[in-house]
Amino acid sequence: MPALSRRRALALTGGALLAALPFSVSATLPANKRAVPSHGFNLPGWFEREGGTAPAPAVLEKLRQTGFETIRLPVNGDLVADGNRAALRAIQRGVAELVGLGFAVLVDMHPSGDLRAAFERDPTAAARQVVQAWTALRVVIADLPEDSVYPELLNEPPMERSDWLALRDELAGTVRAKCPLHTLVWGPARFQGIWEIGDTPPLADDRQIAAIHYYAPMAFTHQCETWDRSPLARLANLPFPATKDSPPVRALVSKLQAAGDEEAASLLEQELSSPWTEARIASDFAGLGRWSAAQHCPVMLNEFGVLNFCVDADSRARWVRAVRRVAEANQIGWAHWELDQGFGFIASRQSAEGFDRSMIAALLGGDGED
């Protein structure tokens, strides 16, 4: 018999371990063969809390038929750090369903709730909790096909860079011990921003993808946001592309200054110190492409999007199309944030109606724009 590699032997062992759970997944599920996952979207709200909402099967089937190939699936470590078998089985079933439909799946450790608060109180203790969560979750990943399922170590690591690099290496070792053939996904601290990757070294691993997020300029992508007291909440109806002299911009600056809101007015003027154009986006991604080539590490854009609360639909679609085209021009895979909430492009994950055709065209091409 031919000798087994260490990785293949460990992979077979990982599958045996998962057999102890009451639900098992065949290792022959269809695999996505793309080197870097792309043409995707994020699907929060399913495994970030107990009682999350799964998409209707008809919705998933329609999304796959439309041309989407990848789903980034946020998972909250709070649910699995204590080895919650019911939560692990649910995640296993959910990922297996997505893979069975032909999707590549990024299983994204996405802190929220108690785990997010723990990082603010005691980063060291929170890091231990993330290690515990991956110690449980890696057994699920091990029995899922390595060509279709990608463990993402930690979303937007809320730590100092040096602390994150140490934890990143530990998490990689933790996952790799049971998942020798899966490709690991990681991003830079603290915000996974495109500007944070330049001085971040890759893992010492031959199966990895570096992942970044892109929401620039936030005065445009996050205008009218509602979840904190940021001055972004007081910006509205801004177009793309734009310069500081664009009439809607000048009108909003004047309105904010007349109301005494210098904070919001200054933010807008600062963000428009250079024009908002596709050329600016291309410049940002050219730097990412250079990092990828220099480090011999593939990269992915696994969050980008525009909040739909008060932006005009054409500007929103233009920005999404520009970012997607620039990413593809630099051989960068992508997953849009997100499916059906404030940044989404369908009305509800429970209905195959209400798909935003202009946004889908911006993401996948079409309508004569590509």
TrEMBL record:
It is a single-pass type II membrane protein. It comes from the Bacteria. InterPro entries: GH, Glyco_hydro_5, Glycosyl_hydrolase_5, TAT_signal. Residues 1-27 form the signal peptide. Residues 33-340 form the Glycoside hydrolase family domain. Glucosidase involved in the degradation of cellulosic biomass. Active on lichenan. Its main location: membrane. SUPFAM superfamilies: (Trans)glycosidases. This is Exo-1,3-beta-glucanase D. PROSITE patterns: TAT. Belongs to the glycosyl hydrolase 5 (cellulase A) family. It is found in: Cell membrane.
